Amino acid sequence: MTLLELKNISVHYGRIQAIKDMSFTVEEGEIVSLIGANGAGKTTTMKTISGLLNASAGSISFMGEDITKMKAHIRVVQGISQAPEGRGIFPAMTVLENLDMGTFGRKDRSGVSDDLERVFTLFPRLKEREKQFGGTMSGGEQQMLSIGRALMSRPKLLLLDEPSMGLAPQFIRQIFKIVTEINGQGTTVLLVEQNANQALARAHRAFVLETGEITHSGTGKELLANPAIKEAYLGVG
Amino acid sequence: MSMVDGPTPLHTAKADQAAEDRGAVGTPPGSSAAARRSGWFGGLGEKWQALPRQKQWLFLILVVILAYLLPIINPPLISTEPGNDFPLACQTMAVWALVAVGLNIVIGYAGLLDLGYIAFFAVGSYVTAMLTSPDSTFLKIPYLWTIPVAMAVTMFFGVLLGVPTLRLRGDYLAIVTLGFGEIVRILATIIPALKGQVGFQNIGHPPGTDASGIPIFSNSNGTPWYWLTLTILIIVLLLAGNLERSRVGRNWIAIREDEDAAETMGVPTFKYKVWAFAIGAGVGGLSGALMSGQVGFVSNAKFDVVTSILFVAAVVLGGAGNKVGAILGGALVAYIPLRFTSIAEYKYLIFGLVLVVVMIYRSHGLLAARQQLLAYGQKAYAAVKASSDAKAAKAKTGPGKEAAS
Q1: Closest CA to B116 of B68, B51, B182
Q2: Residue ranges per domain, chain A?
Q3: Domain annotation for chain B: domains and CATH numbers
Q4: Are B381 and A130 contacting, i.e. CB atoms less than 8 angstroms apart?
């Protein structure tokens, strides 16, 4: 089943067009990666899907329903949750309070403790630090908190914006392993990355973004094997 | 001994020094700079949290009683007399504290820099003036009834200003609110019904006269006014405290810390920002109504930008996000020029210097916002603890059950 569908989306910042006529779909149960260089429009795409930015043309539908004009805080209730670029945690709140903020849009309060268990199982480090203030944690821990918080709304679609940004290699591997695990538990993941190697290896399908347009698409493995992509994004060939 | 005849201040000074030395011995020499810095005022918060509940209540009750008795005790060193009547000074301080508590909701909790808060103060003052002064042509109602009316009208103005402007952020919002403050002052000048510099005289006051037939709440009798304002301040403080600890307060903090993140958590940020603006405005209107009742006269002269900036200074000085700090900041900003009348001319120079010094040494204000689990978080924490304990218990008995089935 198609979970998310973007049709001919364009996004402008004032007069500058950041996304040009973009169309793609995300099927239920997939991990889909969007890779691209700086300024390719990756974060813009994410913000448009989560509702922080409005598309100037085109339509977005989620589970068959048109959400193009829907406000961001209502999209969360519908099942789209975002771990924003740069983590976006609340520094003056504790880990637990941060996670609790993630449950804001939920109607089933009874499921919260189960999801908290799940997040603590995925990220045992968060449990150790549950009373620590978000702002005092390391970058990797903040990234875990950001993903954990996004999971607390029990989303159908999880948007991860550059989860590897600024992290040490062993943290990056760990984060990607956990992303696969989250996907295995039934959450569809849309991932935006500069770290193309990991993002392609973990993805069912992937798209390459260049200056606001999709230039390549295929399964993760196909793109990993594509010589042009190898040269441009993987630093080999 | 000659010591006995010697000036006593010297003796106490020595004792204080000795006490300080003992205190200094208590702190290990290796303690970090941050810890030492917070020892001055910041340590207070931790010490306060460490006290048992009963002691906290006892201390609070004592402080409240002392606050009520302040104009009667008229403590010699603290008193603003002979320059200014002390009970009236207390009233001014209480009004400023109330203003700071209200503005703290906007700046401290929701993180919206409002430089035109004076506008709400002005609207509250004018509502009271126009509904009670014989100079206005509007219908007249008793003074105490104008207080809720003033609050309702200013809240309406808060929403009116908030809806178009709260889509802006940071600097842009500050500039627009600054403009709004000026617009209200200029409207008071040019709209004939608001009477510009002539203003409104003989503004109403609460009922009641003493034995000789003089109204209890006369313009020159500060004590009853101070008691009224202090009572309202305490009520507002309790309500603000409840808001702060509720989900609403936490959403405000989330918006303050990262508005986009709050929105992607499902918080309708725009709605909560308008709420913060409206509630803050309501408190501003309330303080305006109390001020105009006591002074008995309202004209456009008092509502200038400089006063608006002083309101912000009071919140920042006290510690944005901390309501006790706001009271301290508001009272101090009102008190200093009244107490030190000889330097009142230089008050902006002095406030400027004080703010610079405070921002260097205590960038979060005299009393920083509480860094502790908010009540909501504590509840969540308790719930998690309970569920994980239950899980652990199940895990223990789990294998047996599986074997049975």
Answers
A1: B182
A2: 2-234
A3: 86-368 (1.10.3470)
A4: yes
The closest alpha carbon to B104, from B329, B296, B302, B291, belongs to: B329
Residues of B with CB below 8 A from A89's CB?
258, 261
* pLDDT given for residue B7 in this prediction: 39
Question: Distance, in angstroms, between A235 CA and closest chain B CA?
Answer: 33
Q: What is the mean pLDDT of chain A?
A: 89
Least confident of B12-21, B42-51, B323-332: B12-21
- B345: phi then psi, degrees, rounded to nearest 5: -60, -35
Where does B74-169 have alpha helices with state H? 86-104, 118-132, 143-165
Q: At what angle do helices A112-122 and A169-184 cross, to 10 degrees?
A: 140
Burial tier of B10 (Cβ tally within 10 Å: 0-12, 13-18, 19+): exposed
Would the CB atoms of B261 and A84 count as touching at under 8 Å? Answer: yes
Tell me the whole-structure pTM to 2 decimals: 0.81
Residue pair A33/A206 in contact (Cβ under 8 Å)? The answer is yes
Residue B208: pLDDT band with limits 50, 70, 90: confident
Task: Indicate the DSSP class of residue A234.
Answer: I
d(C-alpha B319, C-alpha B327), whole Å: 10
CATH number of A2-234: 3.40.50.300
**Using an 8 Å Cβ cutoff, are B314 and B329 in contact?**
yes
Task: Return the residue of B nearest to A48 by Cα.
Answer: B264
Sign for the CA dihedral angle at A19, A24, A30, A33 comes to negative
Chain A interface includes B378 (CB < 8 A): no
Report chain B's terminal Cα–Cα distance, integer Å: 93
pLDDT beyond 50 at B57: yes
- Report the chain B residue with the minimal C-alpha distance to residue A84: B261
Cα-based angle B150, B155, B157 (whole degrees, multiple of 5): 95
Position B45 pLDDT exceeds 80:
no
Per-residue pLDDT tens for B104-122? 999 999 999 999 999 999 9
Comparing A28-37, B75-84, B271-280, B294-303, the range with the smallest average pLDDT is B75-84
* CA dist., res. A82 & res. A151, Å (int): 9
Residues of chain A positioned with their CB less than 8 A from the CB of B391: 117
Is the complex ipTM more than 0.90?
no
Say how far apart CA B307 and CA A142 lie, in whole Å.
41
Taking the Cβ of residue A124 and every Cβ of chain B, the question of whether any pair is shorter than 8 Å is answered with no
pLDDT per residue over B242-290, tens digit each? Answer: 998 888 998 999 999 889 899 988 899 999 999 999 999 999 999 999 9
Paired tokens of B21: 């030395």
Instruction: List, as one string, the DSSP characters of A136-181.
Output: GS-HHHHHHHHHHHHHTT--SEEEEE-TTTT--HHHHHHHHHHHHH
| A 40-59 residues inside an 8 A Cβ radius of B | 50-52
Q: Is the pLDDT of residue B15 over 60?
A: no
Quote the CA–CA distance of B194 and B190 in Å, as a whole number.
8
